[in-house]
Amino acid sequence: MHQKGEFKPGLFLLAEAISFVSLVVRPSRHRWILFVPISSICVYLVLFTECKNNAFILFTLIFFSLDLVALTDVQNELRLVGQKTPISTASLSSRFWWALRLFQSPRGIGWAHEPTAHIRPHPTTLRIAKYILIFDVTRVLSYSNPYFQKGGLSLTDAGWLWRSTVLAHVVTSYTMLGLGYTVYSIVSVALGLTVPGDWPPILGYIGDAYTVRRSWGRVWHQTMRRFLQVESDFIAYKIVGLPRKDTFTTYFKLFVAFFISGLIHYAGDYAVLGHWSGGGLICFVYQAVAITFEDSVIAIASKFGFTKPTPMKKLFGYIWVAAWLTYSLPIWSGPHLTAGFMEDTVGFSPIMGLSRGEWFPKPDPVNVLSTALSKIIPVT
């Protein structure tokens, strides 16, 4: 692998600035050209600089800009709720503030394209305490997991029970994202910069995850929803020429959407691992395979009268989703964990601080918890 240079935050800010300016300038058939420097800068930073913690954001910016800069005539097609006329006819200052709102709202909050069926109520300060507690509990448990240690055993080689501990990693990621976002939203509202309605939770309600489709569509892919849909539509209808409202087209777009998501996560793999053997792309395409299988089973079941989601059906659904994630997620997250993900996320821990005086604990592969678990579940 070639030697990488130091990450250049100035270039990253330049790419974001060009993206923003592209939303401010009046519509033009040449506006798509601005996507070229945006994508070039992002690819350069991922491939040739040490951007371990920014690769995911950089590749997300590529596809976010592909939608809003190259594929969508934003000033004529997108409108705020209540907006009567296109912003393209407004003054520069009006277009500036309009573009700023659009740039800061990848989920379309407050816009006509807002996915209202998937938006949850604004988070409260009580939710912060819940996030902190759940995050710390799962992180402390993860610290003692022999399969979560840098340079240790890989989850992809683990037995089924140890492999299922990847679900703790899922919970940690969910609460970590929710915690930071909730704190930021409450501060913003308290300062009077925004209103509570501007800040629905960044992720969906985890109780909705009783199918693989709902897990991704309602819980995880919230900030990616628009550009994944726009770009899969473009490929299906404009490039391939598939008919609308066709079953094959529906699943073609499903695979395209997860392929794009996989590419974004694959870029993160490369930045973290330093090579292209990460499992992000495979893992996310597998999600489309699982959804296709799942939809077929649901369609067959509905023919026998099993249509409405009862509590028992949801219970089986949660078991199925947990089993599927246990199988598929280690393909992607396993290499990250053995590369030192837990050591990179060391932070404040109330539990370890109060119990052992270790307020900023590091992963500990040999402690009471790991020894006890190893006796119950042999490490293979």
TrEMBL record:
One of its GO terms (biological process) is lipid metabolic process. The keyword Hydrolase does not apply. It is found in: Membrane. Pfam families: MBOAT_2. Pathway: Secondary metabolite biosynthesis. GO terms for molecular function: O-acyltransferase activity. Its main location: membrane. Keywords: Membrane, Transferase, Transmembrane, Transmembrane helix. The chain crosses the membrane at residues 32-49, 55-74, 248-267, 273-294, 315-333. Residues 199-285 form the Wax synthase domain. InterPro entries: Wax_synthase, Wax_synthase_dom. GO terms for cellular component: membrane. It is a multi-pass membrane protein. It comes from the Eukaryota. Belongs to the wax synthase family. This is Unplaced genomic scaffold K443scaffold_28, whole genome shotgun sequence.
